[in-house]
Amino acid sequence: MKGMRPLRQWRTAIVLSVLISASCGRGSSEQAQPAIAVNVRTTTVTQQPFTETVGALGAVEASAGHIALLSAPAPTRVLQVLVAEGQRVARGSTLVVLEQTPFREAERSAAAKLNAAQRAYDRARTLSQAGILPRKDVEQAAADLAAARADLVAARRLTQLSVLRAPISGVVTRMSALLGASVDTNEPLVEIADPSALEVILGMTPADAGKVRIGNKVALRAGQNRSGEMLGTGTVKSVGAVVDSVSRNVSVRVVPPTTSRPMRIGETVYGDVAVATRAAVIVVPVEALVPEGDQFRVFIIDAKNVVHARPVIIGARDPRIAEVRSGLTAGERIVTYGAYGLEDGATVVPARQ
Fold first, then answer.
1. 153 three-state secondary structure
2. Residue-wise pLDDT tens for the chain (353 aa)?
3. 3-class secondary-structure state, position 29
């Protein structure tokens, strides 16, 4: 038994030696395998003009002075409704007739008071001329007569306003009058807007609105984003000085040009305001930017098609390209499509242009 122990130790040493050799062989084989090249698309960094834009959502509205809001001149009821929302009306057209009785009674009462005031004034003047009444009584009678005349004019005006007529030609954009309903002076009943005089009202954050100036050009598109139908290029008319308490936005008014098709009041429009143009800046496709925390990086390709990650500082950008303020120079080759997922030092296969 003592003679067998050295033999077993020798056999164990041989087995361990074979296993170690096999393991070393596999490691050498794995290290020898070449890295897999990644297929990508590339572009050469260039300098070119770049226009910085600020995008915002807005709506079409009638221009100031081309919209009218009508209400009852005094508490009453709705007697007739002669038009409907969306209907075109001419200036002077009758829209809504209110209950006439209270207005006509008020007019008759004012007329009676005027007659009484006129008689009182005539009597006071006659008695004053005869030396019976003092001059101050005549002056008081004259003041009462003037007040009665003013009351009659006001009563007649209310009677006229009890029939709501269109002050401008346009389209009925709101109709809230209901037949037989009670109304008061604080309740708007009819709104009319002139569809030939329109503006686009864009809602911007205070930061974006701070970049906008009167006269800036605005690319207008139908819908809620840049993919909508192109309507034309407008001009900034005014920039609001107050932040809306509800939306927290600033209103930017845009005068549209002759658009590719008529715009409708209330239509949603997206506007890109050109706030600055720089003659020659470094730009790259947006797809070349790879987020890295709060910053970005791009992948530079060397002569051996090996990529190297490089941090860049980005300025303004639009849906297609971004301004690079530092980190790149013109003439360098970078990865565009396929940049996501790349690692520094990887080998790539650029697609044929």
1. helix
2. 444 454 444 344 433 343 444 444 444 444 444 456 678 899 999 888 988 889 999 999 988 888 999 999 999 999 999 999 989 999 999 999 999 999 999 999 999 999 999 999 999 999 888 888 898 988 999 999 999 999 999 999 999 999 999 999 999 999 999 999 999 988 899 999 988 888 999 999 999 999 999 999 999 999 998 888 999 899 999 999 999 999 999 999 999 877 777 888 889 999 999 998 888 899 999 999 999 888 999 999 999 999 999 999 998 888 788 899 999 999 999 999 988 888 889 898 888 75
3. helix
Relative to beta strand 38-40, strand 348-350 is parallel
Q: Is the dihedral of CA 39, 45, 46, 50 positive or negative?
A: positive
* Cβ contact 85:171 at 8 Å: no
User: Which amino acid appears at position 169 of this protein?
Assistant: S
Phi, psi of 350 (to 5 degrees): -65, 135
Contact 236, 253 (CB under 8 A): yes
- Name 18's Cβ contacts closer than 8 Å, sequence gap at least 6: none
Angle of the 135-161 helix axis to the 101-129 helix axis, nearest 10: 160
| φ/ψ of residue 197, rounded to 5 | -125, 95
Q: Smallest Cα–Cα separation from 212: which of 54, 24, 80? A: 54
Q: Which residue has tokens 């075109």?
A: 88
Inter-residue contact 186 to 121 (CB < 8 Å): no
**Residue 233 contacts residue 260 (beta carbons within 8 Å):** no
* Residue 169, helix vs strand vs coil: coil
The count of C-alpha atoms lying within 13 angstroms of the C-alpha of 18, restricted to the half-sphere facing its C-beta, is 6
HEC string of 82-149 equals CCCCCCEECCCCEEEEECCHHHHHHHHHHHHHHHHHHHHHHHHHHHHHCCCCCHHHHHHHHHHHHHHH
Half-sphere exposure of 202 (CA within 13 A, CB side): 34
